[in-house]
Amino acid sequence: MHFDISPKGQDYLNRVKAFIKNEIEPVEAAFWSEVTATCPGGDWRQWQVPAILEELKAKARAQGLWNMFLPDETLGAGLSIKDYALLAEQTGRSLLAPTVFNCNAPDSGNMEVLWRYGSEAQKQRWLMPLLAGEIRSVFCMTEPQVASSDATNMQATAIVEGDEIVLNGRKWWSSGIGDPHAKVAIFMAHTPDASKDRHHQHSMVLVPLDAPGVQIERMVPVFGDYDAPHGHGEVNFSNVRVPLDHFIAGPGMGFEIAQGRLGPGRIHHCMRCIGAAEKALELAIDRGTQRVAFGKPLLSLGGNRERVAEARIAIDQARLLTLFAAWKMDSVGTFAAMGEISAIKVVAPNVLQQVVDFAIQIHGGAGVSRDVPLTAFFSQARSLRLADGPDEVHKSVIAKMEIAKRASHGDR
Ligand SMILES: Cc1cc2nc3c(=O)[nH]c(=O)nc-3n(C[C@H](O)[C@H](O)[C@H](O)COP(=O)(O)OP(=O)(O)OC[C@H]3O[C@@H](n4cnc5c(N)ncnc54)[C@H](O)[C@@H]3O)c2cc1C
């Protein structure tokens, strides 16, 4: 296994680091203050995105720091998953950077779906404006009424009637739907077909968010915060009709596409967690060395130095495991790396949660204020232990594979 970054990846890495330091970090606090001032709570129809974001996007795009997640040489940066992973780590240090580089979830995953599985017409209508950063997209899979960690529970339907698909169902945690630029959803639903097995009974359908019957009912807060100007919506789809060519890759392809979508996306999420954990550790050390109590720097009190060491060990372990998963995906494909992908999806958000918790503690009251990004990192870590499959579901995947391996080897 080789973890070396390619010369091309190294060039991107240097430029991404410099852009974050010189262009994003100086304005990031002001950006979030403006969001707080201009996004009135759950009244998401009033939300605005501060103008500085478009300026930063234009600068990043002009420098070629754009769509770097996409393996396509022309439309993206043509980087391997492992090389891009190291860039994702850097972008995770900032809450704004992924969007500035047009590499943010859920758009990156949705773009990858359209790039891999979309028809030419779908690419022209939706992929190109997404790649240009002109519109935003949403992924609607989770439903409030059923345990959605088991996707076969899904109750929403996508039924073919003549030359149309009729969509019905209620979704929530539809991330990004509060953004005024959100224009399209990928709606996942049940398309019953007695001739197919249970994993070919679900479809992904492209739905313009202004289609009649799409009703965004509210934004769901995360720990009381609406995560503006992005937002997580609860959406009702009531007899929404779209043409047949709005199926992605045809009816019944939902699970197959979902596997392809979630593999690279999990690497990106995990590396962003590692970047956020690095940032949290830096903040903890700075605070702990600069502030004094009982005659000593905070870091020299109690078990704080040991906590720093434990954080370093945990972050490095998580990074190595994630790079191993990325390397395996590059070398033998996403399917063969399923166990490793599940492993990092458990490890990285838990490491971030542990490191941020320490960073909050050593900051005292400031740790839970908005003066430092720690509450946002904590929220990211805690949410990711649920989103894209809760910890327990990924552990059950790993256990199943381990037990099957043992069974196939018999006694030794
Ligand atoms: C901030 C945030 C953003 C999100 N964004 C999106 C999005 O953009 N699009 C989207 O479709 N969804 C999104 N989600 C939803 C997320 O993917 C789901 O919450 C997740 O899949 C779990 O589904 P559920 O909430 O129905 O929990 P349930 O399925 O009800 O599970 C609840 C709990 O049951 C336990 N459990 C479940 N299965 C097992 C098992 N096999 N073994 C042991 N215990 C188990 C786990 O502890 C689990 O946390 C988001 C969620 C959050 C919090």
TrEMBL record:
GO biological process annotation, one example: fatty acid beta-oxidation using acyl-CoA dehydrogenase
Question: What residue stretches are annotated with the Acyl-CoA dehydrogenase/oxidase C-terminal domain?
Answer: 252-400
InterPro entries assigned = Acyl-CoA_dehydrogenase, Acyl-CoA_Oxase/DH_mid-dom, Acyl-CoA_Oxase/DH_mid-dom_sf, AcylCo_DH-like_C, AcylCo_DH/oxidase_C, AcylCoA_DH/ox_N, AcylCoA_DH/ox_N_sf, AcylCoA_DH/oxidase_NM_dom_sf
**Which segments constitute the Acyl-CoA oxidase/dehydrogenase middle domain?**
139-240
Q: What domain of life is recorded for the organism? A: Bacteria
Q: Where is the Acyl-CoA dehydrogenase/oxidase N-terminal domain?
A: 13-134
Q: SUPFAM superfamilies attached here?
A: Acyl-CoA dehydrogenase C-terminal domain-like, Acyl-CoA dehydrogenase NM domain-like
The Swiss-Prot or TrEMBL record lists the needed cofactor(s) as: FAD
* Keyword field: FAD, Flavoprotein, Oxidoreductase
- Keyword Flavoprotein in the entry? The reply is yes
Family as reported in the entry's similarity comment: Belongs to the acyl-CoA dehydrogenase family.
Record note on quaternary structure: Homodimer.
Name-wise, this protein is Acyl-CoA dehydrogenase
Q: Which organism is it from?
A: Pseudothauera nasutitermitis
